[in-house]
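Suppose a colleague, Dr. K., hands you the sequence of a protein chain of 142 amino acids and asks what its three-dimensional shape might be. Before reaching for any lab equipment, you can write down a predicted structure in token form. Begin with the sequence itself:
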Amino acid sequence: MNEELENQFYFLRNFIVEGFENYKIDKILICENLKDKSVIFVYLKIYEKNWQKYFLDSGAGFWEDTETINYLDLENIEDDEDFILKDYSNKFNIKNKEISKIYCEPNEENCQIIIQLKNSEKILLRCRNSKIFDSECEIVFE
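The predicted structure, expressed as tokens, is then:
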């Protein structure tokens, strides 16, 4: 692997998502694989911001702005019978909770994306088995 690619990959394992500190969460939607109940990707809606999409793949974390504020614009996000979109907002009781920091960090052979809330709670997207490279993902609330 060349040095340039290694640096880029390292960057994807360690990053801070800026611009969301002190904003409140409106909704969190999970795209889940129906067969193994693993998380494919996550949509996060923050008040006054666009929907954000994030996921883990190949041991790295990815974060992107969907460039849409409207939930209806997301209705065709996954047109496949193997996946389902679930609303975890009530399950995690995160509506109106303030964000302190959003970041991605290494977690053994993979990485994890953490949304740190002001009250010290966390939403973690991580691999079920961090020792197995690119294992299935899960989302937990601590």
